[in-house]
Amino acid sequence: MTLSGRSVLRLSLLGLFGWLLQITAISNVTIFGVPADLIPLLVAFAGFIAGSTTGAVFGFSLGLLVDLPSFQTLGVNSLVFTAVGYGAGRIRELRDPAHGLAPVAVGAAATAIAAVGFALLQFLLGVKAPVSLLLLRDTLMIVLLNTLIALPVYAVMHRALASFLPDDPRRRRRRAYTTGGLSPLSRA
After folding, report:
1. Measuring CA to CA, which residue among 67, 60, 57 is closest to residue 23?
2. Helix, strand, coil share of the chain (percent; to 5)
3. pLDDT for residue 173 is more than 50
4. φ, ψ for residue 31 (rounded to 5)?
5. Domain range holding 165?
6. pTM value?
7. What is the spatial distance between Cα 188 and Cα 184, in angstroms, rounded to a whole number?
8. So where does this one cross the membrane (predicted)?
9. What's the half-sphere exposure (Cβ side, CA atoms, 13 Å) at 138?
10. What's the CA gap between 78 and 56, in Å, rounded?
11. Residue 139, strand partner residues
12. What interhelical angle do 38-50 and 133-161 show, nearest 10?
């Protein structure tokens, strides 16, 4: 699916605003000792709403934006978020989930994959970090917090992007059949 210039601009502004919100406000508010992480949700929902290619590009760009000001290995977040955005987009393209709670599951899975992927890449790169049950507890708490905020984040992303995306004919056709629309089997 190709995006228009206005939708790319809107997606870029959403990513920049989400990144600024994460580093200025959300990372300073801790619940049960851990802050929520907005970035995996933004990347996953961009892919979930706009498709796998858009999700991968958005994930790479936002991951690079996360990596630049921090003193971490450049590209680790980009690699992880590229995979998260692409995976969420493929879920939408292959399964076409219509359930209202699908964004909650996608948000929880994206957060878990991002956290485990980042830790695994840091381990493979030889970064010395303490590994304990506290790390597992923190990861589970971040996944839980992101699961709780997944629906509001999805609603904002969907409202901002849905009007600029082209209509998917597969969804329109399926919806027409399930609502009693023009089914070829119902003709006399």
Report:
1. 67
2. 75, 0, 25
3. no
4. -125, 125
5. 5-186
6. 0.82
7. 9
8. 12-34, 41-65, 71-89, 101-125, 140-165
9. 14
10. 9
11. none
12. 40
Task: Please say if the pLDDT value at position 169 is more than 80.
Answer: no
Between CA 70 and CA 60 the distance in angstroms is: 16
- Phi, psi at residue 131, to the nearest 5°? -115, 120
**Domain tally, the chain:** 1
Residue 105 class from Cβ within 10 Å (0-12 exposed, 13-18 middle, 19+ buried)? middle
Q: What is the largest CA-CA distance in the chain?
A: 72
DSSP, res 186: G
Q: Helix, strand, or coil here: 48?
A: helix
pLDDT in tens, 96-113: 777 888 999 999 999 999
Q: Locate tokens 């300073």: which residue?
A: 28
> Per residue in 60-71, is it b (16+ CB within 10 Å) or e — as a string?
bbbbebbbeeee
CATH code (residue 159): 1.10.1760.20
